[in-house]
């Protein structure tokens, strides 16, 4: 009678080696495809100013995301101390009726976010021209649970804002911005017309919603 026990450790060892080789091959394949794990993306500048209010949830989360992605980049409150300026040109948060039932009651809402911004350097050169980011979500509505649906709408808006912040940070770290900022360092100050500050964003009134419908929560401001 032959014992098979001596081959068990060998089999397990072979399997471990095969799994290791497979993992190594997968890593090499991902690297060849240009895949990178999500992590810090150091920005080409070390000081940044933004007119997005710091005391707003959106503003504080934006600042936190920038410093988390690029630890060497510092957010300054004095625009004259900043290498670049991220200017919010407009910001709109709204919802609209998407569908009604036979009784004319809202069955579904469409949630919308729109954020327009640009990036300029300290000499007034445009590093990133006015860029519009939009986000839209559809959400079922039940007028028998207004309070619960209002909370759900606010939660979805917060998630949409966070995704929008991630997109802003990716724009700041993009090759185009890096190249434009590097090239601007060798240029003289921009003309007064080019370097003029963007006008402050005007408050855009939210469209009225039907009686009993959920209210839009606090906006990006």
Automatic annotation (TrEMBL):
Compositional bias per record (Pro residues), positions renumbered to this chain: 198-211
Cellular compartments per GO CC: cell outer membrane; transporter complex
Keywords of this entry: Cell outer membrane, Lipoprotein, Membrane, Palmitate, Signal
Gene Ontology annotations of biological process type: Gram-negative-bacterium-type cell outer membrane assembly; lipopolysaccharide transport
Location of region: Disordered: 181-221
One Pfam family per UniProt: LptE
PANTHER family associated with the record: LPS-ASSEMBLY LIPOPROTEIN LPTE (PTHR38098)
Family affiliation: Belongs to the LptE lipoprotein family.
Function of the protein: Together with LptD, is involved in the assembly of lipopolysaccharide (LPS) at the surface of the outer membrane. Required for the proper assembly of LptD. Binds LPS and may serve as the LPS recognition site at the outer membrane.
Protein name: LPS-assembly lipoprotein LptE
């Amino acid at each position: 009678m032959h014992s098979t026990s001596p081959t068990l450790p060998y089999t397990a060892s072979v399997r471990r080696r095969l799994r290791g080789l497979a993992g190594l091959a997968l890593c090499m394949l991902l690297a060849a495809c240009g895949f990178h794990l999500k992590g810090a993306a150091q920005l080409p500048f070390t000081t940044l100013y933004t007119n997005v209010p710091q005391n707003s949830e959106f503003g504080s989360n934006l600042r936190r995301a920038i410093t988390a992605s690029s630890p060497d980049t510092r957010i300054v409150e004095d625009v004259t101390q900043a290498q670049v300026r991220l200017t919010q040109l407009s910001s709109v948060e709204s919802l609209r009726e998407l569908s009604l039932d036979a009784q004319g009651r809202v069955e579904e809402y469409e949630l919308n976010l729109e954020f327009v911004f640009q990036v300029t350097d300290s000499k007034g050169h445009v590093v990133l021209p006015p860029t519009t980011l939009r986000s839209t979500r559809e959400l079922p509505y039940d007028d028998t649970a207004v309070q619960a649906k209002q909370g759900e709408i606010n939660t979805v808006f917060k998630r949409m804002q966070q995704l929008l912040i991630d997109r802003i940070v990716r724009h700041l770290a993009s090759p185009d911005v890096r190249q434009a900022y590097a090239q601007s360092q060798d240029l003289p100050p921009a003309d007064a017309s080019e370097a003029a500050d963007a006008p402050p964003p005007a408050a855009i009134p939210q469209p009225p919603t039907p009686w009993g419908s959920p209210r839009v929560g606090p906006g990006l401001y």
